[in-house]
Design a protein that fits this description.
This protein is mostly helical. It contains nine helices and no strands.
């Protein structure tokens, strides 16, 4: 990989992860099915009151999205760790943080983008007003990459553990809470017709901060896990 340019290395690693995910389509679809089933079954548990469903709808969508992202996190580096590819990444002449960013982007394209695509249908089912669906989509496009970026740090710390799923959840879930709070509040605020500039700005700041810091922290964590 050292003979390639950084852009070529990034593109090849991204293509590799997407190709591997396509070959394991049954695993790739699990987070999406989980997201849809949780969102679809929740109204069955709370009754058919339209106002109640509308009130909890944004929270349902975002909790389901958060858990779906968490469900697929462990696969981000696991196969590379098991076949030795991860050690080769660490020995690459290119910055490890950039290679890590390619894998994070692949994870979001596999997990976050499908959730974004089906979210409008679930929003209609949960009685979220049409004028608030745009805000919901904006929070998803800003927030779901943050979930992948923050999650990569937790995965990197636990990739060497035989059963790291529980530890991964304990590490990552507290860091997901601010995204959940501000994203849900933005949609609920849009439902009542109040501007959501503050919440959207905070989510955008979280995305920029995570984009700047998470790949570096993940690269450092991988070095610790492989040492």
């Amino acid at each position: 990989m050292s003979t390639l340019s950084l852009t070529s290395a990034f593109g090849l690693l991204l293509k590799r992860d997407l190709t591997l995910a396509y070959r394991r389509r049954s695993e790739m679809i699990n987070p999406l099915l989980f997201f849809v089933l949780v969102s679809a079954m929740f109204p069955l548990g709370i009754g058919n009151d339209p106002k109640l469903i509308q009130a909890v709808g944004p929270g349902v969508v975002w909790v389901a999205a958060l858990l779906a992202a968490l469900l697929s996190l462990d696969s981000m580096f696991r196969s590379d760790f098991e076949d030795g590819s991860l050690e080769q990444f660490m020995l690459s002449a290119h910055p490890v943080s950039i290679l890590v960013l390619a894998k994070i982007l692949a994870h979001w394209l596999i997990t976050g983008l499908p959730l974004f695509i089906v979210a409008p249908l679930l929003a209609i089912m949960l009685n979220i007003p049409t004028e608030a669906i745009g805000t919901l989509m904006l929070t998803l496009v800003l927030g779901t990459p943050v979930l992948s970026l923050i999650g990569s740090f937790g995965v990197a710390l636990t990739v060497g553990l035989r059963r790291g799923g529980v530890i991964l959840s304990l590490l990552v879930l507290p860091l997901y809470v601010p995204v959940l709070i501000f994203a849900t509040d933005a949609v609920q605020t849009a439902i009542v017709g109040i501007p959501t500039t503050a919440q959207i700005s905070i989510l955008a700041a979280m995305l920029v901060g995570s984009l700047a810091l998470a790949p570096l922290a993940t690269a450092a964590s991988l070095r610790i896990s492989l040492s």
